[in-house]
């Protein structure tokens, strides 16, 4: 039995899936899936991180994500996709959102950051980090002035502040 964390790489583009797998296979046990159905067949309690494409032909990444969470899997999920983020990512139960193309350094840094966070995840810190990552993604990808005018973004800011304040009080 491997003591390495397990990563499930899911993308309908075989070349991308295999590339990401080679990037992380020195440090992780890697499983690959080339469609959403295969991903759901391979997900189990051993999977620590899922790299999930959002746009796939059989089941979308959003559908795979919903099913993973419905089954009760609490793995870290990083959406790695060519789909530009919109305000809808706020509602996704993901830990990070990365727009392709992604570099090896960027991908491994995100995974390592999640691993470090997992050692210290307590009292809502994981949810705080996920909200912070979503906010950063939106700010990087969308017009900030327009974004700040949306109710969804304002709620995200308020939730982030409330959660931060609660952690400081509990800390």
Overview of the structural elements:
The chain has 171 residues and is an alpha/beta fold. It is 51% helix and 15% strand. It has seven helices and five strands; from the N terminus they run βαβαβαββαααα. Strands 2-1-3-4-5 form a five-stranded parallel beta sheet, sandwiched between helices. Helix 3 links the parallel strand 3 and strand 4. The chain is globular and about 40 Å long. The mean pLDDT is 86.
Share of β-strand residues: 15-25%
By oligomeric state, this entry counts as single chain
Specify the number of helices: 7
Low-confidence stretches: none
The average pLDDT score comes to 86
Please compute the radius of gyration using only Cα atoms. Answer: 16 Å
Estimate the global geometry from the Cα principal axes.
globular
Strand order of the largest sheet: 2-1-3-4-5
Major β-sheet, in short? Answer: 5 strands, parallel
Tell me the helix content.
40-55%
Protein traits:
globular, 51% helix, five-stranded parallel sheet, 7 helices, alpha/beta, 171 residues
């Amino acid at each position: 039995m491997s003591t390495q964390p397990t990563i499930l790489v899911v993308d309908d583009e075989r070349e991308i899936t295999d590339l990401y797998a080679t990037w992380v296979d020195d440090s992780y046990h890697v499983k690959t899936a080339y469609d959403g159905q295969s991903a759901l067949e391979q997900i189990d309690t051993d999977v620590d991180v899922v790299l999930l494409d959002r746009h796939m032909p059989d089941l979308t990444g959003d559908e795979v994500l919903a099913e993973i969470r419905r089954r009760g899997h609490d793995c870290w999920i990083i959406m790695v996709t060519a789909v530009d983020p919109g305000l809808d990512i706020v509602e996704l139960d993901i830990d990070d959102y990365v727009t392709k193309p992604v570099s090896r350094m960027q991908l491994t840094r995100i995974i390592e950051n999640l691993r470090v966070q997992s050692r210290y995840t307590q009292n809502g810190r994981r949810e705080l980090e996920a909200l912070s990552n979503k906010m950063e993604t939106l700010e990087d990808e969308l017009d900030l002035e327009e974004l700040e005018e949306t109710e969804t973004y304002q709620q995200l800011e308020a939730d982030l502040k409330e959660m931060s304040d609660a952690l400081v009080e509990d800390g």
